[in-house]
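Database export, one record per block. Field names are fixed; values are copied verbatim from the stored entry.
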Amino acid sequence: MKKRFQLLLSLKMLEYEIKELSVFARECEECFDLLKIKLDSLHLFMTNKENVTLWEQWGEDEDIVSWAEKVREASVRALCDMEKFQSKRSCNHDLNVSKYITTLSKSVKQELEDLSITSQSKVLFIGSGAFPVSALTIASEKNAEVCCLDIDKEAVEMGMKIAELTGLDSRVTFSNKCLKDVPFVKKATHVIVASLVKNKLEVLQDLECCIQTRTKVIVRYGNGLKSIFNYPMEMDLYKDWSIIKSDSTEGIYDTVILEKGKVVV
């Protein structure tokens, strides 16, 4: 029982600190540096072996589940604020976004290889955010055509400005329309669903009606302890989806690659 309270206290402290730092950052932009440090520390917390063991023991406890969800909501809001701040800094030339993309490209390289993205690919990125580094990395590294979708209109507008700054606006387009209202969806060869997209199964339902049969869909998600920073995903998928590859790593999120068709067991 002692271990339960240890995990519970850790979650409560994380939620409190993230929410407080988010308030501070809105009042003083310099505090975004402190918020970034705290958000970065979540990766270490989620992959710490002791914490993982504690989650395995107590992850179904009602209070633990409730506070894990509170941490996630706080961290998601904080990350959205952080992305808008980074986007604003880039537009003001206070952040070298090209250098930032080069750094990130190293961490997403394996993901791009798994998807077999080439210069002929047409990539739909759902939940691109205000600082769409992953989407821009795909366009930069693979010279692929990318369409970014996000329900946040301000994030879409900021993303467009970042694309212009990096000279990738001819390869990357943006929209905040519904999936069914975006013509690009029907010709997409690859779809990436961001880990911060909440309604993943609903998105898959919408995609099922629109995409081509052989289109690869990669879903980023976080189950278990990783759900404190990512929206989870039920792996009991619809009968019309095949699991091509599923990766659970020590990264900040896990991925699953899907295609339309009978589920592969």
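Remark 1: Residues 106-260 form a domain with the Rossmann fold fold (CATH 3.40.50.150).
Remark 2: The chain has a mean pLDDT of 89.
End of record.
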